[in-house]
């Protein structure tokens, strides 16, 4: 009777060896994947701290920057000396709020009002600057889906909200790039303030591009294209200090908040 009983595969000693080999291979591949991921994150962090880009924006966009500055002279002559500071601040706030609130996605209106409370003053300041610059109220770029948030930098760069175009019409092509420099700096600032443990890598290429095209001296924009070293709190403090240095460099004679509209 035993000889006639069908042979079961799971009772075969060889089948257990196959299973153990499969489990071992799965474990090795998982550990290898995690190791590669850790190496990639480490490498990305080091590149972010150096502000590495495949080309040097200061050289790549130098000629175009001269052309844009020349095209903007006449229009900027009609603006007040405080306009560059206001445009930069508008950009930083626009990028900051788009990143900060975008992480919540689409929420019911009542929930969104509660989530906006910590940044209510920034929202008001954003609108005040927009009105003072003559472009009307400004709202952060809406984020409705995870894909929207994942592509936030690209959407901001493509001016999905149309704010950069409004800034250019009210000011100049050069100040449009100053606005966009502020936008990408603002998203990095908000990401550094996030409780997420991952250190955010700045959009180095775009910061360098817009900084150069806005005729911002390289020593001022270059540190903004790098992730400061140290723990997140230290990196945040250092990044804020660099933003402050940039704001001082473009500040006009009038105090912030007193912006004369373009003639």
Describe the fold and architecture:
The chain is mainly α and 263 residues long. It has helices at residues 13-50, 57-60, 62-77, 83-102, 109-116, 120-132, 146-150, 152-157, 163-170, 173-193, 204-213, 218-221, 232-250. It folds into two domains: 1-50; 57-250, no CATH class. Helix 4 (83-102) runs antiparallel to helix 6 (120-132), helix 10 runs antiparallel to helix 11 and helix 10 (173-193) runs antiparallel to helix 13 (232-250). The protein starts with 12 loop residues before the first helix and ends in a 13-residue tail after the last helix. The model is unreliable at 253-263 (pLDDT under 50).
Question: Main traits of this protein?
Answer:
263 residues; mainly alpha; 2 domains; 13 helices
What would the average pLDDT be, to the nearest integer? 83
Total domains: 2
DSSP summary: helix tally: 13
Q: CA-to-CA gap between the ends?
A: 105 Å
Low-pLDDT ranges: 253-263
Instruction: Estimate the helix proportion, in percent.
Output: 55-70%
Gyration radius (Cα, Å) is 25 Å
Measured by DSSP, the beta-strand proportion falls in under 5%
Quick synopsis:
The chain contains 13 helices and no strands. It has helices spanning 13-50, 57-60, 62-77, 83-102, 109-116, 120-132, 146-150, 152-157, 163-170, 173-193, 204-213, 218-221, 232-250.
Write the layout of secondary structure elements.
Blueprint: H1 13-50, H2 57-60, H3 62-77, H4 83-102, H5 109-116, H6 120-132, H7 146-150, H8 152-157, H9 163-170, H10 173-193, H11 204-213, H12 218-221, H13 232-250
Helix pairs in contact: 4-6, 4-10, 9-10, 10-11, 10-13
């Amino acid at each position: 009777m035993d000889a006639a009983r069908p042979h079961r595969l799971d009772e075969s000693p060889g089948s257990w060896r196959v299973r153990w080999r499969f489990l071992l291979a799965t474990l090795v591949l998982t550990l290898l994947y995690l190791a590669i991921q850790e190496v990639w994150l480490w490498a990305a962090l080091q590149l972010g701290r150096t502000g590495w880009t495949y080309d040097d924006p200061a050289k790549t966009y130098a000629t175009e920057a001269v052309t844009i500055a020349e095209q903007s002279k006449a229009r900027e002559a009609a603006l007040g000396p405080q306009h560059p500071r206001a445009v930069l601040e508008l950009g930083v706030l626009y990028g900051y709020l788009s990143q900060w609130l975008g992480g919540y996605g689409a929420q019911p209106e009542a929930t969104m009002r509660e989530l906006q409370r910590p940044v209510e003053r920034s929202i008001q300041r954003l609108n005040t600057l927009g009105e003072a610059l003559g472009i009307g109220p400004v709202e952060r770029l809406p984020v409705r889906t995870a894909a929207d948030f994942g592509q936030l930098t690209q959407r901001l760069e493509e001016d999905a909200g149309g704010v950069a175009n409004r800034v250019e019409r009210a000011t100049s092509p050069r100040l449009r790039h100053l606005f966009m420099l502020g936008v990408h700096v603002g998203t990095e600032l908000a990401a550094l303030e996030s409780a997420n443990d991952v250190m955010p890598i700045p959009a180095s290429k775009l910061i360098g591009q817009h900084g150069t095209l806005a005729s911002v001296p390289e020593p001022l924009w270059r540190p903004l294209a790098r992730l400061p070293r140290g723990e997140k709190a230290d990196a945040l403090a250092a990044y804020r200090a660099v933003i402050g240095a940039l704001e001082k460099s473009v500040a006009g004679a009038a105090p912030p908040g007193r912006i004369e509209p373009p003639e």
